[in-house]
Amino acid sequence: MTLDSPRLKMADPESLDAAASSNSKPGTTGFLPGDDTWTQFRNIYSILTGKMSNEGIEKFRVARDTRNEEADCKRCEDQRDYLLQYSPTIRFLSESIQQLGGDLHSHNIYCRRCTDRKGGGFDPEYGILICANEMKDQGHLEDTMAHEMVHAFDHLRFKVNWSDNLRHAACTEIRASSLSGECRWAREFFRRGQWKLTQQHQECVRRRAILSVRARPTCKDEAHATRVVNEVWDSCFRDTRPFDEIYR
């Protein structure tokens, strides 16, 4: 495996530090550089009162992630190891992957600071990347690990063509969102503001699959992504392997 995967580049600390400190004059973005408590308070106040621009908010997040990198990664690694040992979902997926000849464990599930605002990613030659700076809590990490482990299972079981086949990509995204627990009612309702009481799970899975397919280079637009997801929806949503049913 290589740490220089084309799809899962690690964050460059120097470039992030430079981004956090450059072009940050108050009055332009509203962001004030500095790690002291008073500066942090002023930045948070600017965000809460709507005085900081979107660019300023992103600079604030980059600076915060850079400052907390060591602690975020340590917490992520501790929680990862706990889940690998005690989470029924993670243990079952790990065992299912082993039965197919794969191996996912702490040596190739990496906790890193990411520049993209995503939870993680899977690469067949690399393993799983967990964006430590984006993990809200252990439950969020468990869902993210489960999502990427479903991708790993699909890669081994169904020989997914990751680069060219959008139908393959749509199918594994449908399955990963459906089986990981990230679309369960409580997470949608309390964290994402999706307050519908019926068909919530299906709509969440469809929405996330379309977003993922749309982000792929070979996808033309949202209409194209929606069409591809709809084409494979019935068979892929019903397929709960390696689980007997959707229970998260």
Automatic annotation (TrEMBL):
Subcellular location: Mitochondrion inner membrane
Keywords: Hydrolase, Membrane, Metal-binding, Metalloprotease, Mitochondrion, Mitochondrion inner membrane, Protease
InterPro entries, alphabetized: Peptidase_M76_ATP23 (IPR019165)
Enzyme class: hydrolase
UniProt GO BP: mitochondrial protein processing; mitochondrial proton-transporting ATP synthase complex assembly
GO cellular component: mitochondrial inner membrane
Family: Belongs to the peptidase M76 family.
Annotated protein name in UniProt: Mitochondrial inner membrane protease ATP23
Source species of the chain: Penicillium vulpinum
